[in-house]
Design a protein that fits this description.
Layout lengths: L1 H5 L3 H4 L13 H13 L2 H8 L13 H13 L2 H10 L6 H10 L5 H12 L3 H8 L4 H4 L5 H13 L2 H11 L5 H7 L2
Length: about 180
């Protein structure tokens, strides 16, 4: 759930064009996608994406702009990334509309994993140190952290309704997209 509030997925930020209809990309697939983009290696990228729909928009001539869009997303420049998205004629999907809010809270993979570990271990101090001054820290404190852990556990077991009730109680952002993708 904290992961839902702070994570960005490069693959979804590009409008789902990384996958074919019906594909269910794994976190490893999305991470590989990000790593290939960050390497700037067009050949490696084409070998990874194959004939997926995104190849209708991205080619060797404009791949550097695609990499730049990725870097702008990581840097939090939503407007710049959207301009390049338009230039590349990438479709707009719901993930792109939500990109601005998520980018502001971008957290590296290692930190997201550490946050998950803090939740798994019910370790408020570690969690608080990791999230720092992000907005979620204004709503979660030592007194209600156990509810956050309970929400996390419910999400891990697939109890979306229970997790959503606690989310509402804690006044956290809705997690529809996250829950849909994480609970498969």
């Amino acid at each position: 759930m904290v992961l839902a509030l702070v994570a960005t997925s490069a693959a979804s930020a590009y409008g789902g064009e990384f996958k074919n209809k019906g594909d269910k990309s794994s976190p490893e697939d999305r991470q590989a996608f990000v790593e290939v983009i960050e390497s700037g290696n067009y050949e490696a990228w084409t070998s990874l994406v194959g004939d997926k729909p995104i190849t209708k928009h991205i080619n060797e001539d404009n791949f550097d702009r695609f990499v730049e869009m990725h870097n702008l997303i990581k840097a939090g420049d939503v407007d710049g990334a959207k301009e390049i998205r338009k230039e590349l004629n990438l479709p707009v999907k719901k993930a792109v509309h939500k990109m601005g809010r998520k980018i502001k809270q971008n957290i590296p993979v290692e930190v997201r994993e550490a946050i998950k570990e803090a939740l798994d271990n019910n370790d408020y101090n570690a969690w608080a140190e990791l999230v720092g001054d992000r907005p979620v820290a204004e709503k979660i404190n030592a007194d209600n952290f156990d509810r956050l852990v309970e929400m996390h556990e419910l999400m891990q077991t697939g109890d979306r309704e229970g997790a959503n009730e606690i989310r509402k109680e804690l006044d956290l952002h809705p997690m529809k997209r996250f829950l849909k993708n994480r609970m498969k």
